[in-house]
Amino acid sequence: MGKTIIEKIIASHSGQTVSAGDIVDMSIDTRIARDFGGANVVKNLEDNGLPVDDPNKTLFTFDCNPGGSSQKYAINQQLCRQFARANGIKVYDINAGVGTHLAIDEGLVCPGETLVSTDSHANLVGAIGAFGQGMGDQDIAYSFAKGKVWFKVPATVKIILKGKPSSLATPKDVVLAVLKELGANGLLGFASEFYGDYVDKLGLSGRITISSMTTEMGGICSFFPPNAAIIEYSKKVSRRDFSPVYADEDAEYIRTLEIRIDDLPPLISRPGHPEDVVPVTEVQGKKIDSAFIGSCTNGRIEDLLLAADILNHRKIAPGVVLKIVPSTDQIWQRALKEGLVRLFKEAGALVGNAGCAGCAEGQIGQNGPGEVTVSTGNRNFPGKQGKGEVYLASPATVIASAIAGHITTANNIPEKPSIFLKSEEAREAKKEFSQELQEKPTKIQGRVWVVDEDNVDTDMIYHNRYLTITNIDEMGQYTFCNLDGWQDFPQKTKEGDIVITGKKFGCGSSRQQAVDCFRALGVGMVIAESFGAIYERNAINSGFPIMVSQDIKNLNLKDGDEIEVDFLSGQITKLSTGETIEAIPFSEVQLDIYQRGGLLM
């Protein structure tokens, strides 16, 4: 039986023939820590006396908060700079841009190679046929020190895009169509490969857009088989040889999915759920307060050129704020040289430093209570980019809406824009978010809290406003601070309690704090129907018990019920009735790390 792209890449980096489900140590060609998470990586290395394996393959990227406009970010950046100087590590500092884009454009990673980062969208390097994975602080510290990391080989979904989209549709609209088809859990724990005539002709920018939103479908990574143009580009920027990887004709896929994109119109995600995708026409006319073009999904020069072409020397609607953030400084400089920056400024836009912008509480892109934003970002979870509502769309839709003053498409921009009026409805929309080593037991009992929700993301578990906290003891008080109805969890839980929840728990960002906050409270474990891929790794690497059970609802548990959980057998028992279900027991890797007290112990 033939092999998929990810099976081949992992095999070449582990020295073993691998198949889906295997757990192996794989070497990492490029290891990145960002200003978000970087200080914790440094702390893990220094606290455990670990060296840097190869400084030439190791780097820092300061893309979350260019300028260090937050004092805590500034502190974290300086800690990373000092560590980098002491260990001969390159820093792509506050003027450089998004780390994963730099990895491609600087030739730090090439087709067939591997990269890890504290960025949950590191999988966007799949655009050039490379393996990228966002990981937590301990994983990245381990890769810095050992040059490798353990990994479970995922099965692969083959996605074939059939047809030709309308002339108004962009790659962002195509990936929104895929997201609508697959949903928030459609690629959970899987890799994917994209094929079809549309894919073959797609340039690097479009491939990055689609690959970067794999995370929003729960996927590990998405691969585009590199065509001649991609190979030529990677050779030019890297100035070295590499071996592109392609799937075998008889590769084994867990699923093959055909998605029709014939005459695809412009699409948009409604606030709160990236997968809640509808045609733009369904929400056309919705008044907006702000617009954003940028992020790792849509900050390329092609995105800026498209926006400039539609703008065509018009002005942004009165009362609308347009923020534009190129993904790298190279793109920023080209935009300056070609007159795009002047065009945007004359229209009334704010053009910011290259970087991630508002995604991780950066300096540009956040919104306020009641504010309606249309954005090219990849996520619109509640509270992720502020306290307002965020619609996700293409650069074409965003710039058209900014000109119109309301959501619209590029072919339906009115002669006169909507005028902002302070209304009672807008005032009512303003809301405040309240939101030492010894043998450990392999069987525990505890009182349960039933968080009966799917897709509880890491911003709901632990909001990004507290990301700069590195002392675990301080983290517990912020647990579920952005999950409606659960903000009082830290006050009512007690040591040994067990959290029961639904699908894709811990989706979203790669933050370790979303695990450590439970450890700080003394929570015994979390049982979910499924976990976000990075969250699962972070929990296992911390030695924090988690378990997957798709049958947990069969026990009809309520808050306060007590259960017994056997890590070795996977048996979960409701103590009041004696009813049992079977969950997935700990793997040998999980059990070993749990008993050691963490990956780095």
Just name the CATH architecture of the largest domain: 2-Layer Sandwich
* The CATH topology of the largest domain: Aconitase, domain 3
* Domain module tally: 3
Tell me the strand order in the biggest sheet. 22-21-20-19-23-24-25
Describe the sheet with the most strands: 7 strands, mixed
CATH top level of the largest domain is: Alpha Beta
End-to-end gap? 39 Å
Number of helices: 19
Give a count of the beta strands, DSSP E runs of length 2 or more.
25
Portion in beta strands: 15-25%
- Indicate the overall shape: globular
Spans of 5+ residues with little confidence (pLDDT < 50)? 429-437
Compile the SSE list and pairings.
Blueprint: H1 5-14, E1 23-27, E2 30-34, H2 35-47, E3 58-61, H3 71-87, E4 90-92, H4 99-105, E5 114-117, E6 131-134, H5 137-146, E7 148-152, E8 156-162, H6 171-182, E9 191-195, H7 197-200, H8 204-212, E10 221-223, H9 228-238, E11 255-260, E12 267-269, E13 277-279, E14 290-293, H10 301-311, E15 321-324, H11 329-337, H12 340-347, E16 350-351, E17 372-375, E18 389-392, H13 395-404, H14 424-429, E19 443-451, H15 458-461, H16 489-492, E20 498-501, H17 513-521, E21 525-528, H18 533-542, E22 546-548, E23 562-566, E24 571-574, E25 580-582, H19 588-596
